[in-house]
Amino acid sequence: MVEAAAPAAPAPKPGLLKRLALPLILLLGGAAAGAAGAYFMPALIPASHEKKPPAPKVAPLEYVEIPNSFTANLKDTGRFVQVKIAISTQGGETVTEAVKRHQIAIVAAVLDILADTTEADLSNPGGREKLTRQMRLAINDVLQRKSGIAGVDDVFLTSFVMQ
């Protein structure tokens, strides 16, 4: 007779440790990644609650008119030039007071520039802009030497006569 094969013994079930090993490893890896992210993320993203330093306060633009009328002979000709000037500054009251306080030195510096100017300098395109630039540099130099500040932003010719 043919003997019937005895049913094979069922395979033993894997132990509890083997069944939980993969999920346990994934859980620990996720926790480690979360902890690392929480530790390093604040350094990568600036906090929104941090106060930004306030922008430096800029004084409003102020104009100061120099009351003198500057008259000087042009270099190498018999002609003369007469100008009146005003300055602009965003340096506030400190600069405007310094301009008023050192007005005599500013007048002398502007007259030196006018005395060193030729008719060709003023007749050329851009000659007046070059003249006002030289005046601005000279006025700032006077203010820097006399009061330690140089805050004149621009010089304007409010009157200009050349004869």
UniProtKB/TrEMBL annotation:
GO terms for biological process: bacterial-type flagellum-dependent swarming motility; chemotaxis. It is found in: Cell inner membrane; Cell membrane. Keywords: Cell inner membrane, Cell membrane, Cell projection, Chemotaxis, Cilium, Flagellar rotation, Flagellum, Membrane, Transmembrane, Transmembrane helix. The chain crosses the membrane at residues 20-41. The keyword Cell membrane applies. GO terms for cellular component: bacterial-type flagellum basal body; plasma membrane. It is a single-pass membrane protein. The keyword Amino-acid biosynthesis does not apply. PANTHER family: FLAGELLAR PROTEIN FLIL. Belongs to the FliL family. Controls the rotational direction of flagella during chemotaxis. This is Flagellar protein FliL.
